[in-house]
Amino acid sequence: MAGQTCDLFDCGHRACGGCGAALVSRLILDAAGEDTIVVSSTGCMEVFSTPYPETAWKVPWIHSLFENNSAVASGIVAALKKQGRKEKVIAIGGDGATFDIGMICISGAFERGHDFTYICYDNEAYMNTGIQRSGATPYDASTTTSPAGKCATGNPLPKKDMPKILAAHGAPYVATATIAYPADIRKKVKKALDTPGPCYIQIHAPCCTGWGFEAEKTMEIGKLAVETGLWVNYEMEQGEVTKVKKVVRKPVEEYLKTQKRFRHLFRPVRNDTEIAKIQAIADRNAEKYGIDIKLKKD
Amino acid sequence: MTRTDFMQGNTACAEGALAAGCRFFGGYPITPSTEVAEHMARKLPKAGGVFIQMEDEIASMASIIGASWAGKRSMTATSGPGFSLMMENIGYAVMTETPCVVVNIQRGGPSTGQPTMSGQGDMMQCRFGSHGDYSVIALAPASVQEMFDLTAKAFNLSDRFRTPAFLMADEIIGHMREKLVIPDTVPMQGRKPLQQGVLPFHPDEDLVPGFPQFGKGYGVHVTGLTHDERGYPCATSPALHEELVKRLVNKIESHRDEIADYDVVNPDAETVFISYGVPARSVQQVLHDQKNPDVGHLRLKLVWPFPDSALRIFKNAKTFLVPELNLGQIAREVQRHTKNEVVMLPKLGGALHSPAELTTVLEGYL
Q: CB count, 10 Å around CB of B264?
């Protein structure tokens, strides 16, 4: 909005109302401060935040291609280091750019150990091109290339475990977060930027347009993902899980039924088999990360 | 039974592929081509085919090469940036003589350019984009009907010549909706099987070898290295390399007239528009309005290999006007084949030449 400014990631950009990814940008720049250079892959965030006069970035910003933000970041980091400069470098990509097309470049950058932070805003599909599945799309979510129907119940594949893959590269700090807990995002971004070496943060970013929910429900859905155990907020340092957000778990259908991408699991008839499979994913998460708060029996 | 529909160009392309027996699609989302993949994702499983969303366009192109060797008619669809990523594998498909169809719904380039706007800037990349010398087959639809018809035809040409075939459409044709007549069946010309006792890369008289599909009893060895007729690498023999690459080029170039596909209007005209793809629509309007037999139109439905003999149909031609949504890529090709005046009518930015613009230019030559 002309004349009015909000943050380093400015208001008045073109994102949908209720966009989780827009919150991600705002929070990470809020934490990173102005001495930051941002490399951004092709994707929703690039498209909604850059055209003039709604350009939102008040830090140096470069669009890479879809597949190579980490390689561009590698060059920036190496050149800054040679000059003895201290700016922070953040590479931002959506889940398509991170899990699929950009994975080679991320792997290379993490192997070389450049000092930068990679942030994935994970809205669990290609939203910019109109909701196609990605390696981050959860099991059974319906997208335009994994449509639910006679032959399928939506995306048939599990979500790829990117944090673990990058931790296996020797990343000193890997974390997951969701926009439902803004203070947690700020804290994790600061920690990543203060940690030498390549760090990775994956942020659950609900997409009202792609997931099919009302814009005012973004935060609620972000919380529900954590509360059902379908998304786990944790930190890994030197490959070991050091911190996990614990919850009193709710059944997964409380999360699923809020979104049109899972509507086929409830209509025209409830698909108990598939819902049970998704519950099993949450149960495995709970066991693996120890997220359950044990309530004392009265 | 023949049925009539009202359909988007990209959807018609997918329908054309399905009608032609395409049963494998490996693709990756990219504007303005994504609807092709989306339609294939919905329809292929029901037709007993396979849709795979790959992790990028490099993988997409590689997957259709694999599926082709396993015996399926295979296709991918993309646009500029994805097309650039496919280039190394396109050269591989040329070298290994792998039939497959690549759809490029062109947008404004270079780089990310104009994702939602039209362009024809990839015509030369299609011809020369991968490294080394080779030749290609490329079709250019100018209507939703041709998105269907020429996609189906691309599979036949690809199989006939054991080479990748391209459908070089654009955003306007891909996204506009028009009447489409879907025939009961489409003409099918499948792969020539390899005869018993013939080496897998030994060409017949037409310079095209039969196709030794995996698992059909042939000992097949497929490589992007320069190879002998057995398929084994032999990358240091100058004579072998020259013979192979010349055959890859000539198997297509020596069949220019067989492959050619174009429409001719007013062959006695002195001033002739040459168009392909969407600018043809504006030219057609100009000819309709002018009703002047001295204004001709050569509309290319197939651009590569360039059908140079079509230029000679216009015996009285003095001037060729070539409107394109690029800075004159095919106009230069026209220049190579004629001594007549060739007027480039380039246009960038995504908008089409208006009939009024073309009429103004035309009047200067009448």
A: 14
Q: Which residues of B touch A146 (CB under 8 A)?
A: 41, 53
Residue B167 to residue B149: CA distance in whole angstroms: 11
Domain B3-182 shares a fold with domain B263-363: yes
B-chain residues within 8 Å CB-CB of A133?
A: 53
Q: What integer is the mean pLDDT of A126-144?
A: 98
Note the pLDDT tens digit of each residue in A61-75: 999 999 999 999 999
Q: What is the CATH code for B3-182? A: 3.40.50.970
Please give the pLDDT value at position A5.
Answer: 65
Report residue A298's pLDDT band, with 50, 70 and 90 as the boundaries. low
**B29 contact residues in A (CB cutoff 8 A):** 96, 126, 129-130, 132, 145
Check: CB of residue A20 under 8 Å from CB of residue A207.
yes
Q: What percent of chain A has pLDDT over 70?
A: 98
For the entire predicted model, the pTM comes to 0.95
Fold of B263-363: Rossmann fold (3.40.50)
Return the number of other C-beta atoms located less than 10 Å from residue A141's C-beta. Answer: 27
Q: In chain B, where are the structural domains located?
A: 3-182, 263-363
Amino acid residing at A236: M
Do residues B144 and B9 lie in contact, with contact meaning Cβ atoms separated by under 8 Å?
yes
Q: Which CATH fold topology does A20-289 show?
A: Rossmann fold (3.40.50)
Chain A residues touching B37 at Cβ < 8 A: 132, 145
Closest CA to A88 of A29, A25, A7, A167: A29
The ipTM, to two decimals, is 0.92
Separation of alpha carbons B53 and A30, rounded Å: 36
What distance in Å separates the CA atoms of residue B62 and residue A273, rounded to the nearest whole number?
Answer: 36
Q: Is A63 on the interface with B (CB under 8 A)?
A: yes
Q: Is A145 on the interface with B (CB under 8 A)?
A: yes
Say whether residue A191 is in contact with chain B using an 8 A CB cutoff.
no
Burial of A92 (0-12, 13-18, 19+ CB in 10 A): buried
pLDDT per residue as tens digits for the range B175-185: 999 999 999 99
The owner of tokens 């930190």 is: A235
Looking at chain A, which residue has its C-alpha nearest residue B29? Answer: A129
pLDDT over 90 percentage in chain B:
96
CB contact under 8 A, A133 and B53: yes
Chain B interface includes A146 (CB < 8 A): yes
Cβ contacts of A146-152, under 8 Å, gap ≥ 24? A146/B41, A146/B53, A147/B41, A147/B42, A148/A264, A149/B42, A150/B46, A151/B45, A151/B46, A152/B45
Domain ranges of chain A: 20-289
Substitution target in A132, A137, A142, A155 with the highest count of B β-carbons within 10 Å is A132
